[in-house]
Amino acid sequence: MARSENKTVPTGQSVESFLLTVQPAKKADDARALNTLFRQTTGFEPVMWGPSIVGYGRYHYRYKSGREGEFLATGFSPRKTALSIYIMPGYADFGDILSRLGKHKLGKSCLYVNKLADIDMDVLSELIRAGLKDLNGHWPVKPT
Fold first, then answer.
1. What is the pLDDT of residue 6?
2. The CATH number of the domain where 39 resides is what?
3. What is the 8-class DSSP label of residue 52?
């Protein structure tokens, strides 16, 4: 089977330019802080995926069905209602870390945080590292 046609793909958009568009100002401050944390934690340079996701690292996946493609390894998006933090392939095995994180909501591969003041940034860094290690056990993570 051919590679999948993901809607979310890397773009040529500048991460710095994107971060300058984030509103309101407090969310923009949180987005810049997340960019710093992700860069330090992953060692990867950020790349825009689609119009609003800042991604760090990438991986090539191939499912048993034969579907395959490329996707970001981890990242975030400063959405209108919350900061969305992406850990691939998901958060199922990270209950111990999540219990120490602070106020958040959980989706399959998304962690929703209203503001960074609600969470422990050191624990978030630990979660990012654990997610990358887990992902790398499924599919090799490469720099962006």
1. 76
2. 3.90.1150
3. T
User: Is residue 44 very low, low, confident or very high in pLDDT (cuts 50, 70, 90)?
Assistant: very high
Asked whether the predicted pLDDT for residue 98 surpasses 70, the reply is: yes
Position 13 in a domain: no
Whether the CB-CB separation of 70 and 58 falls below 8 Å is answered with: yes
User: Quick check: is 89 in a domain?
Assistant: yes
Cα 114 from chain centre: 15
Per the domain annotation, does 95 fall within a domain?
yes
Helix, strand, coil percentages, rounded to 5, for the chain: 35, 30, 35
Residue 19 lies in a domain: no
d(CA 71, CA 26): 29
The CA-atom distances, in angstroms, between 92 and each of 1, 69, 88, 106, 108 are: 28, 22, 10, 10, 8
Question: What is the number of domains present in the chain?
Answer: 1
Domain, as residue range, for 37: 24-139
For 15, 88, 90, 108, the CA distances from 93, given in Å and listed in that order, are: 30, 12, 8, 12
Segment 7-16 shows an average pLDDT of 92
Tokens of 52: 């609003």
User: pLDDT tens digit string along 129-139?
Assistant: 999 999 999 89
Judged against a pLDDT cut of 70, whether residue 1 lies above it is answered with no
